[in-house]
Amino acid sequence: xxxxxxxxxxxxxxxxxxxxxxxxxxxxxxxxxxxxxxxxxxxxxxxxxxxxxxxxxxxxxxxxxxxxxxxxxxxxxxxxxxxxxxxxxxxxxxxxxxxxxxxxxxxxxxxxxxxxxxxxxxxxxxxxxxxxxxxxxxxxxxxxxxxxxxxxxxxxxxxxxxxxxxxxxxxxxxxxxxxxxxxxxxxxxxxxxxxxxxxxxxxxxxxxxxxxxxxxxxxxxxxxxxxxxxxxxxxxxxxxxxxxxxxxxxxxxxxxxxxxxxxxxxxxxxxxxxxxxxxxxxxxxxxx
Length: 288
What we know:
Layout: H1 7-18, H2 22-35, H3 43-66, E1 81-85, H4 92-100, E2 116-122, E3 125-131, H5 138-146, E4 149-155, H6 160-172, E5 177-182, E6 193-194, H7 202-213, E7 215-221, E8 232-235, H8 240-247, H9 249-253, E9 255-261, E10 269-271, E11 281-287
Parallel strand pairs: 1-3, 1-4, 4-5, 5-6, 7-11
Antiparallel strand pairs: 2-3, 7-8, 9-10, 9-11
């Protein structure tokens, strides 16, 4: 652990620990290196950080080479970005339509030529969903590298596709994968199963997506008024300090205390900056 590191370093470290993609990890590591105290006691930590950064940049470069230098990006909106990856006729377009209302499913293989994007509503949170073309082109798989979650969808009658998708995950070094078998025929599925066309078990899929994104919702509240109807989303294990920083840095600078409804010992209990927030907490910050 670095000696005399300031809050900004630890904030960057928290971003790194919560990062789901290579790009996010690189950005967080670069910030950690920048904020690390420049003295002899931190030299070993600096060397470790630089080694991690070098490895991640090498992985990013290798992925770019596999794509022939062509990289497609989809600007992120909502609480998180989720990619649907699968082979032809696995039901990706049907699932995108069921989750977001976007797109027109087709029985023609490889009919999706470019990524399709929609917004999925989970309770009161919008989550971006991107369908990746079945061609598995590195150019399009680059989107999955930067997504917070990848859904591997396969036809339940074609269990051999699990092995094929596993090879894709390994070759592309993809992480945070949620597997889902699409029951197109009457064949019994192995593992978690849905029916993308009828919507069977899709509500459970939505719940799993939210869980795997590793987020919590926090509703801020001004003294004497009702809580905001739209939540802010933060990584799990975030604290009141993170909430205050996200609202405005002046709240952190002039922080006195916060009142919490939800995870506190009793409704409206007074807490400090280190209090860990839980999903659906209401936070009222008091600053001088």
